[in-house]
Specification:
mainly alpha; 108 residues
């Protein structure tokens, strides 16, 4: 158990550091929103918090569209297994054994 490789996020201190940096970046961007002049094309871009709200709404719309597309793009779980055997035929026992041990049915 001691031989397991330690990953960077296994240590709770590293997670706290990443979250501190993330929150610091969020605070900095929030403060810069009041300081930096934006060159806007449309009047609604001047509204406070327009870009965060726009990003959140766009993300929600993308998720909803993806859920809708799943209804006609999704395939059954055994989609690729259906054509492997003929209807009613049993799979070859030697083929399963050969695949399990890494054989390729090649005469060499």
């Amino acid at each position: 158990m001691d031989n397991e490789k330690k990953h960077i996020f296994d240590n709770p201190d590293n997670i706290k550091r990443v979250l501190t940096i993330f929150y610091g970046c969020c605070g900095l961007l929030f403060a810069l929103d009041f300081i930096i002049h934006r060159h806007v094309v449309h009047s609604w871009e001047n509204l406070w918090g327009f870009y965060p709200v726009f990003g959140f709404v766009a993300c929600v719309i993308l998720v909803l569209i993806a859920k809708w597309m799943r209804t006609f793009l999704m395939r059954p779980e055994d989609y690729y297994d259906e054509g492997d055997t003929e209807i009613g035929a049993k799979p070859d026992a030697n083929a399963a054994h050969s695949a399990a041990i890494g054989g390729n049915d090649v005469d060499a």
